[in-house]
Amino acid sequence: FAMPSLARAQTIGARVLGVVLLFALFTSACERVLLRFDATRKLHRHTALTLVGAAASMFHCLLALIATIWLFASLTDDGAPTDNPAGLLVLRLHTHVLTHRTDAAGCLFLGFLVFDSLFVIRHFHVKGIGGYAFLIHHFAFILACWLNMDTQLCNYIFPVLYVGEVSTIFLNLRIVVRAFDRPDFAVSAAFLVAFFLTRVVLMGLAVGQLVSLRASLYVLLDPSVLFSYLCLLPCLYLLNLYWFAKMCRSALRVLNGAKVD
Question: Which of 11, 43, 139, 238 is the most buried (most CB within 10 A)?
Answer without folding.
Answer: 43
